[in-house]
Amino acid sequence: MKLSDQTPSQKAAQPVATARSTAASTAAPATRQTTSRRLFLLSTTAAAAAVAVGLVPRLVRPARADDARRASAPEHFEVAYSDAEWRKRLTPGQYEILRQEGTERPYSSPLNDEHRTGTFFCAGCALPVFSSRTKFDSHTGWPSFWTPLDNAVATHTDTSFGMTRTEVHCRRCGGHLGHVFDDGPKPTGLRYCMNGLAMTFRPQPA
Ligand SMILES: [Zn+2]
């Protein structure tokens, strides 16, 4: 009697061990194990039970696919060109900043020293993005502003280079302009740190 009581529970435990060793052996150990451990910890009791009966792959894969779709869902932009077309329309420097989220060398853009009254435009689609009224010298070597023009830019969270920053791009063509930080001057306390190469400037006619 005791032997037959124990047998089913031993059998039930088997798939768990198998699943774990499979996961560990099929891939880059650290990340895969961390991921599955986190998923396990976040699971509800029902999902944890599913883990025990070996249903994990079926439950997990659709959720991860959804997440990936959400994360990579492209923003829709009014002005859109193919990558090849952008390369033709922009200089290599502009392309690297606007289309590949590059960063120009500090103090390399003449727009950093542009102090005339006028308007800064997106170099990708010519949308007015900043006014000289809101420009200030941040001593960083990049043209800096405490606010953009209305309805000019959009942002997303940028976690590249091990930092969490707020990326700023043109709301019309999606061209990368720079980042925004919260160490700017009054009245907003914001510092829109822009790449001069991503913009053009037109002085206001006197
Ligand atoms: Zn644009």
TrEMBL record:
Membrane-spanning segments: 39-60
One GO molecular-function entry: peptide-methionine (R)-S-oxide reductase activity
Residue numbers spanned by region Disordered: 1-30
InterPro entries per record: Met_Sox_Rdtase_MsrB, Met_Sox_Rdtase_MsrB_dom, Mss4-like_sf, TAT_signal
Cofactors named for this entry: Zn(2+)
Taxonomic source organism: Pandoraea iniqua
Compositionally biased intervals (Low complexity): 17-30
SUPFAM superfamilies, A to Z: Mss4-like
Domain called MsrB: residue spans: 83-204
Protein name per its UniProtKB record: peptide-methionine (R)-S-oxide reductase
Family: Belongs to the MsrB Met sulfoxide reductase family.
Annotated coiled-coil segments of the chain: none
Encoding gene per record: msrB_2
The keyword Methyltransferase appears for this protein: no
Keywords: Membrane, Metal-binding, Oxidoreductase, Transmembrane, Transmembrane helix, Zinc
Keyword field contains Transit peptide: no
Compositional bias per record (Polar residues), positions renumbered to this chain: 1-12
EC number(s) given by UniProt: 1.8.4.12
PANTHER family on file: METHIONINE SULFOXIDE REDUCTASE (PTHR10173), PEPTIDE-METHIONINE (R)-S-OXIDE REDUCTASE (PTHR10173:SF57)
Gene Ontology BP term (one): protein repair
Source organism superkingdom: Bacteria
